[in-house]
Amino acid sequence: MPPNRGNDLPRRGAPYSRGGPPSSGPYPRGGPPARGGPPPGSRGGPPTPGATGAVALSQWSAKVPVGGAAHVTTVAVRRPGYGTLGRQIPVVTNTYPLTCPPLTIIHYDVVINEDEKKLPARFNLELVERMQSSTYKEVFAASPGVYDGRKNYYTAQPIKFPDGPRATSGRFVVPSDAEPAAPGRPPPKMYTITLKEVARISPQTLERFANGEMSHDENVTTAITAMNVVIRMVPNLKYPFNIRSFFTDKEMKPIGAGLEVWRGYFQSVRWGVGRLVINVDISTGQMFARGPLLKLCTEMMQEAVGQNRRIDANTLCFGRGFDERMRVLAHRQISGVKVINRLHKGPGRNPPRLIKKVLYESARNARFKLKSGEEVTVLDYVRDTYNYQLQYPDMCLVEVGSGAKLPIEICEVIPGQIWKRQTPPNQIRSILEFSTQKPPDRLRAIQNSMSILEYGQSKYLRAFNMKVTEQPINVTARLLDPPGLMYGNNATIQPKDGAWNMKGKRFFRAATVENNWWIWNLDQRARLDNIVPGLVDAARETGIGRWNLEPLVRQENVHNRPQGMSIVGKLDQLFQRCCQESQTRSKPHILVVVLPHGMNNELYQTVKYLGDIRWGIPTQCMQAAKAIKANAQYFANVMLKVNVKMGGVNVIPDRRSVPYLMDASNPTLVLGADSIHPTPGSEMRPTFTAVVSSVDTNVSKYYAQMRPQDSRQEIIADLADYTKIAIECFKAYRTRIEQLTNNPARIIYFRDGVSEGQFEQLLEKEVVAIKEGCRRMGITPKLTVIVVGKRHHVRMFPGRPQDADRSGNCPAGTVIDTEVVHPTDFDFFLQSHGGLLGTSKPTHYTVLLDESNMKADEIQQLCFSLCHVYQRSTRSVSIPAPTYYADIVCSRFKNHFEPGILTNLEHGGHGTQSITSGGSNRDKKVTGDLLKTWKQQFQMPGGSQGRAMYFM
């Protein structure tokens, strides 16, 4: 059973943003003419209002025409109308009404010390706040401005610059420290802050945009950005923050590996229909653990090396195992961390200092000169100055920003430093446990956050005349009916609360094993006595016939192998031996592999690579700890994966539930696309893109394609090729298996992973590429493009206890397409899965193109239905199945490389050079050479294995 996607931590993709210059592509802003719907308001209509406190839908729908005024251009499809299907239920959202009386927003560009390197955002904030609250208080007293910590400063009234009333820029000199220098110490450094007016935003901009009376342009973007800076100014000055969230240690938990997690608060100004709202949510921040630097460093190094070597204080000491390799490892873990000297006492400040590097020196041998000219060791200086004898005089030192060399054991990590690297795998469970909250608890925490957000007390909100109503917006949602699902022998199931039981049902089309299957036991402690019968029984129950009770069984210790032989060689040798020893002297129809307790990812990837790529057979891995329990439900879930890997189909939607999708006279090809980018620090790794495509009339069987492309490029470069191959596979399957010859008349393209700011690029490049792929095949199907968004913070909570499911969440099928959606674009929020743990997250759908002119109800029902045919589950999932498949294919890119190759590639191996800093032509050539090498080493399954859903 898959995880509850609605509770996952965000995986990737840019945060919500819009704007930028008008499109320079082939279409004017608003995209190709064909993607628009009929005139606004021509179909559908809003449902009647429900929940107490909700704005009367008749009021705002009368004020705001469906799809906006006729002259307004849109990036996405104009809203064709409101959905009407389903039972109406009241829903509470985590959005709050925001009012802002008409005012002119003045935008200033900020430069701090033109020749200065980039300074930390928090330091910049403190400088600007000191400028307007202290050093130049008389200039800014009338209307304090707000600052984003980088380049943008906004005010509600023009600044009266010292150069006169007509001046539009000015310079302000501000000290680095609010306190005067102590006697005997140098004065604080002075910074020059230059403000230059760059724009003024009309008072009516946001009101007209929210009412659907004007197009989205740079003025709207600037105004929204300014208001976000206003609401974040107070917390950003008080707490650790990232772009949209800040964090407090009122609720925190140490999780090991040198980390602790803090409860945080997300807030963002966004548009609703006819008004602006603030979206408030709970978030989780990972921090470097406070306390002794030595403890932090050893814990993080231990996490990095795993259990193969014990890391303690002695590891960092010369003569006890410390070498250059350990120095580099320690440097990677703690460089950039701010520390204080815990021995500091007496007058003067003890400011935090940034660790620049770990040195290959110890306190015993590192020497420096005192002001008197005397040369001393760090060991002697610490003893004489602080009356402290170092416990580890042979431990390496750290160099801090001031150039000083400090012993690790006297350094204390200050709290509140955000961890910006990839989350250690062993800590994910602890983070999820901390961040998971039941819906009532999460809603209560959001409402209680008003005292921390301090909207009513903020002088910045008062300066901009902004007021927040501290009662969440209630919305009338609709509960869609789930689709009927068909299994073998025309058996139909009706899901309830996002789940169903297929007991007594057989797969819609079962694969056949023909008594030729193997099982390898790679766990030395696991016994197969109950595993083999459990698999055979599950296969018989689901219709996968002829699994004999005496498969070819081999127990193998992959770690017991000759010196110089890799795990790949060991397994390859075992495979060849089994082929000779099997009764048929051929490959098996399915190879089941029992992995050792505490499944090793490297071993799993090796098995998948060999099975999918080298041997060309389906492989099914099972964890020994679960398999030996011989649970019938576990083996039934295994069969869900086995059947589709062998070419079968588990379940299809009932044609009556989605007639548009399964119209035999207008065959529909469904595409799902996603991309995965390198994690921070993985500069030598490309981006991988994946496209899965349906091949059958029932849109339940999919073919996968994946390729590497330029690093961190979101737009899919080879989409025309992907599309052409998808159409070829569609036609081949229909001709060979279904004995039908139609070309696809419609293509529905579900795109995951793109932010709102990339919508125009997607229309100008990916839509054009899909049409080019169709042109190469000589067809012109109608195209529908739907963006599937998961990186948002909108949540929905049941307005009445009787409308909640067993987890306390809104039921599967809850859809919102009014009030808190876009003023003009066709978007909606759909919670398609039943809750399991915590608060479920709805998926945000935006229709960018619809040449078939579908109604709102049709598209919403289409998306909901495709969330029910995820083949390895008997629960609906949070996103349409093709999008989920593309996500899985992307995340398993490592399985497509021979084990051992990736390490070399990520370090520029195989004859390539390392990428250096800068942007020279040489660097670009190296990047191209490296990408070429990645492509050469990347392999996709071939033959029947490539045509099956091997990725399940």
From TrEMBL:
Domain PAZ: from-to ranges: 300-415
CDD domains referenced in this protein's UniProt entry, alphabetically: PAZ_argonaute_like, Piwi_ago-like
Origin superkingdom: Eukaryota
MF terms (GO), sorted A to Z: RNA binding
Region (Disordered): 1-53
SMART domains documented for this protein: DUF1785, Piwi
Protein name, as recorded: Piwi-domain-containing protein
